[in-house]
Design a protein that fits this description.
The protein has helices spanning 6-9, 13-32, 39-54, 68-78, 81-93, 100-113, 121-128. By secondary structure, the protein is mostly helical. It starts with 5 loop residues before the first helix and ends in a 5-residue tail after the last helix.
Length: 133
């Protein structure tokens, strides 16, 4: 995808939204959940994603709204190590038996406190598993 031709190729709102959604999901699935990231690599990925999202500014005042999974992934990959380890523990607690509804609720609350709004606890755990210590 040659991003420099977006203004020419995406004159209608339907077209740019479809492309944004496709790019968001492709980057989320193929990069954020399939590539290992060091702490510095997570920060670089976040910067790269911010630059990518900014390409949609001619079409909408809030382009990040169309890249929620990707932006949530960036938050997880660039958060401080201690915070990420705590979140992994909270998300991991949901795997055990017992009151899974309560554990799921705790995991969702922990994600919200971390600024992660769109990803499910399972998706967040998958992203966090790609962090290299």
């Amino acid at each position: 995808l040659c991003l420099s031709v977006l203004p020419v190729c995406l004159p209608t709102s339907t077209a740019w939204r479809a492309v944004a959604q496709s790019v968001n999901l492709q980057y989320f699935e193929e990069l954020a959940t399939s590539t290992s990231f060091s702490y510095a690599g997570g920060h670089q990925f976040a910067l790269d994603c911010e630059a990518l999202v900014s390409l949609w500014k001619p079409y909408t005042p809030r382009p990040a709204n169309y890249f929620k999974e990707l932006m949530d992934s960036c938050k997880l990959l660039s958060m401080p190590r201690v915070e990420a380890e705590h979140l992994v523990q909270v998300l991991g607690d949901g795997d055990g038996g017992g009151e899974s509804g309560s554990c799921e609720s705790d995991a969702a609350d922990a994600l919200k406190r971390a600024g992660v709004r769109k990803l499910t606890p399972a998706q967040a755990a998958r992203v966090l598993s790609k962090r290299v210590v």
